[in-house]
Amino acid sequence: MNKVGTIKAAVIGAWVLGMLLLFGVNSLTGSNVTAQKKKQDSPQTSSAPIPQKQNPEDFVGTETCQTCHETQFNTFAKTTHAKLTHDASWKGKVVGCESCHGAGKAHVETMAEVVANGTDPKLVHDKKIIYLAGLPSKQVSETCLQCHAGREEHNNYRRGEHWRNDVGCTDCHFAHAPDPSPARNASHTLISENLRQKPDTSVLRMLKGNETQLCMKCHAETKAQFSMPFRHKVLEGLVKCSDCHNAHGGFELKQTRLANFSASDASCVKCHNDKSGPFTYEHGPVTVEGCSSCHTPHGANNPKLLKRNNVFQLCIECHTNTHAIAGSDEEGGAPNTPSFHNLTQSRYQNCTTCHAMIHGSNSHPFFFR
Question: What is the pTM of this model?
Answer without folding.
Answer: 0.70
